[in-house]
Amino acid sequence: xxxxxxxxxxxxxxxxxxxxxxxxxxxxxxxxxxxxxxxxxxxxxxxxxxxxxxxxxxxxxxxxxxxxxxxxxxxxxxxxxxxxxxxxxxxxxxxxxxxxxxxxxxxxxxxxxxxxxxxxxxxxxxxxxxxxxxxxxxxxxxxxxxxxxxxxxxxxxxxxxxxxxxxxxxxxxxxxxxxxxxxxxxxxxxxxxxxxxxxxxxxxxxxxxxxxxxxxxxxxxxxxxxxxxxxxxxxxxxxxxxxxxxxxxxxxxxxxxxxxxxxxxxxxxxxxxxxxxxxxxxxxxxxxxxxxxxxxxxxxxxxxxxxxxxxxxxxxxxxxxxxxxxxxxx
Length: 330
Hints:
By secondary structure, the protein is an alpha/beta fold. It has helices spanning 11-22, 55-60, 72-84, 107-110, 126-142, 160-170, 201-214, 248-256, 275-278, 309-325; strands at residues 2-6, 29-33, 42-45, 48-51, 65-68, 88-91, 103-104, 120-122, 144-152, 220-224, 234-242, 261-263, 284-291, 298-305.
């Protein structure tokens, strides 16, 4: 299978290459793609060095699959070109997520809605992916009415320059101006740009994407997204109001038996999910599962995942694997 990775030199793109290799995805020819200024650079895949190509060079090779992680404007321009050439596109940007004709997919939650004709498939926002992984089994058993989420998001979600900025500040430097304020020893309640309603784009992504992925516009979601000076992954404090009562032990057991979720919930032993433990792993970790005594039928939990992996690259590769398993790409 000819597989193009568009944005192969970025944080998510390089993670895509790593996961394709780790999962032994049936790549017969890798086609790494980046901007013209990065063309000619080298990437390594399965101990083999590949030259980064331009978009036109990549299209000429007629890939069957393209994993995109190159930003929304690039995806809007280039994804249709790949699709018109008969190539399946899994796009990690926000460009196609809320498009009425494009599917927004977390395979464990709604992979079944994909059809052979879905040539452009949207990969959800990183913070949305890990949350809906936990919400879906709860919604199936108890019907969720409302979700209140506050996130604690890694600087890796902003990219390589943000990681360098934080480490430069930690070493006593002034950073590079990626964020409007220092990030080291600080917390920024500001991810993406602010909208007229007072929320940020990141917050509204969580609101809108959750309903689309779960196929239920009746779920009310409100979010506050926060950037914190960590690297390992994103964390979320989630308050979930449901229509039916629940037993906390039953919830723990149900989540433990859900594919892709690991329950870490033993407060007596100081066991709970942390970014340090989630880094480099593909599962979504959940703990601090407890009843909200201020409101009926309401649960609190703490969700952590590596945002570069399950929050981006792993989910994209899982979508590609679904397409392959269906026999639509080979």
